[in-house]
Design brief:
Elements: H1 2-18, H2 23-47, H3 52-78, H4 84-114
Helix pairs in contact: 1-2, 1-4, 2-3, 3-4
Length: 115
């Protein structure tokens, strides 16, 4: 999972580096590079969580960032700042990562209840 998140981060960085050097491009670049790379960091932190609650908390933060990234990419696509094909590839991976995070959080919550 960590490698997949790193690859996603790299794809985000590559897109950010190609955004137009405009006020809009700069705004979205800053937002996207933050939200699109931080899930990898939060996932890494979750691997060293101090408790199951801490693990869930760190994953939930990563999930929020993934959702923010998804909206950012949708806006860039609809504004035709990103090519549709490129945006679709990243949106698909983003959506899959959201599903994985949601599933992991549900599993961790169920395991916490069993303790």
């Amino acid at each position: 999972m960590q490698e997949r998140l790193i690859l996603f981060s790299v794809m985000v960085i590559q897109i950010v580096n190609r955004l137009p050097k405009t006020v809009t491009g700069a705004h979205f670049a800053k937002q996207l590079v933050k939200s699109g790379t931080s899930p990898a960091f939060h996932h890494a932190e979750a691997q060293s969580a101090e408790s199951r609650k801490d693990f869930i908390h760190k994953l939930k933060i990563g999930l929020k960032e993934l959702r923010e990234t998804f909206v950012n990419l949708k806006i860039l696509k609809q504004a035709k700042i990103l090519e549709s094909n490129e945006a679709d590839i990243l949106l698909n991976e983003n959506d899959e990562l959201i599903s994985i995070f949601v599933s992991s959080i549900k599993t961790a919550r169920n395991n916490l209840r069993k303790e």
